[in-house]
Amino acid sequence: MLSWVLNRFSYDLGIDLGTANTLVYLRGVGVVIREPSVVAIDKDSGRLVAVGDEAKKMIGRTPANIVAIRPLKDGVIADFETTQRMLEYFIRKARPPGRFVPPRLVIGIPSGITEVERRAVYDSAKNAGAREIYQIEEPMAAAIGAGLPVDEAFGSIIVDVGGGTTEVAVISLGGIVESVSLRIAGDECDESIINFAKLKYNLLIGERQAERIKMEIGSAFPLNEELSTLMQGRDLVTGLPKTVRVTSPEIREALAGRVNQIVKAVKDALEKTSPELSADVYERGIMLAGGGALLKNLDKRIAQATGIPTFLADDPLTAVVHGTERVLENIERLRHVLVTPIRR
Question: Does 340 score more than 90 pLDDT?
Answer without folding.
Answer: no
